[in-house]
């Protein structure tokens, strides 16, 4: 079995900051907007190098989404930055009408998604944003797994014409994807090959899925881990191909199982290849205060939970 | 450049278009449309510097954003009669498979429309984004927008109004249609807003008032004044006092025709009050 190691941990939001800084140097059409959270979004490097292309909007996310929509008229590629909660739920109608329905080339970049925001608690820990965004016609939804992939995704979405929701987070997580791996929107990445169970994970749960696959391997179970960084458009083919071999699947995400990646996968399987599936995610609940590690343990978003679900789903084959 | 009589003739024809469009499908918003007819006719045919044809980016030309998208009948008629698309297409208003959706959208590719509107309160932010990009591009042209007075009850407007003054977006002229009416009654009955002029001024805008917002000459004079105040470090607001339903006597001075279509008899009366000038679609 292919194994993954890491020498460094970093936050995915810093990957966004690094990607945005690179875009600042390579793409003169890229502009950045922020609603009073530039340090949290790691936008400092871009701002320092391109002050004339940065727009501080103040604490006014609705206005930020509208301004971003307007900035596409005249050829700019706006990247908006705020927390995932304020980037989606707070401004759903602005995104729906002024960006998505209006076909505007806006990149909605959202940090501090999910439980791993930690101590600030449920007011800030959105677990519904993937669902909100994937329901919007034409919206691309991406949740990369580590610093390198978040940086690559940030750079890649500038080349995609149309609205994108890019979701990343606050905690330091292992860097295990190659530094120069080109990011292909909508193309799943198979991390390990396996025959007994497929584990499809997104965002911070990808590393947990790899950890789970090591444990399963020690028990003689061969798990195929797939990194689904793009939730929409979903790589149906990769999922169908994998379950054709393994016959069962676990989906894992730092998001409510109602409306998240798992439901998208279930739709694909139900219509094309009915397959036993188990879900890792929060279940119709808000989060709460705590350290990221405590929260991920309490809500079962870790490698041991993935192992349990994998053993359970194998029995259902 | 059209003279006042030509603009008056166009206004009369646009009024006919509006009530015919709304009557045909028994839905749509004639009241606010009729109240803003003179303004949009003057804007598109005299005030704005526009290029031939339509491209989304609109570099080097003035832009217009309609925030109160429910007055789509007047917007569509003015756009068609300014040459953005065939006037015959007005007959498809609100029908299935039409580019003339109930509220304006870019989604069906209708030339002249740059953003969807209908859910209120969003247009000023979009106009500000376009204005900021004009500044970045060294483009000296102006961004115009139109908003309902009732629409100012939406909070996003005040985020935008605050931003525009703070960031000195002085290449925007935002017009507010002060007709004093909204769906549930007069604005003073529904939610009194106090002095809109005072509010814009307190937020740091230059305010130009057009007392006779249904008088072409008054609009031209007021908008020339507004334009002369751009480029001076402050955004410009035009308070346009209009009469909802203007030009059709039984639709005037009431909110009842906000979103109601005339029946056959009412259409005939309205058309008789506005004889055909440039030819019906």
Account of the protein in words:
The complex is a heterodimer of chains A (317) and B (281). Chain A has 317 residues and is an alpha/beta fold. Chain A has two domains: 166 residues, Thiamin diphosphate (ThDP)-binding fold, Pyr/PP domains (Rossmann fold, 3-Layer(aba) Sandwich); 127 residues, Rossmann fold, CATH 3.40.50.920. Helices cover 39% and strands 20% of the residues of chain A. The two termini of chain A are 23 Å apart. Chain B is an alpha/beta fold and 281 residues long. Chain B has one domain: Thiamin diphosphate (ThDP)-binding fold, Pyr/PP domains (Rossmann fold), CATH 3.40.50.970. Chain B contains ten helices and seven strands. In chain B, the strands form two sheets. In chain B, strands 1-2-3-7-6 form a five-stranded parallel beta sheet, sandwiched between helices. In chain B, strands 4-5 form a two-stranded antiparallel ribbon. In chain B, strand 4 and strand 5 form a beta hairpin. In chain B, helix 1 runs antiparallel to helix 10. The radius of gyration of chain B is 17 Å and the shape is globular. Classes of the chains: A alpha/beta (317), B alpha/beta (281).
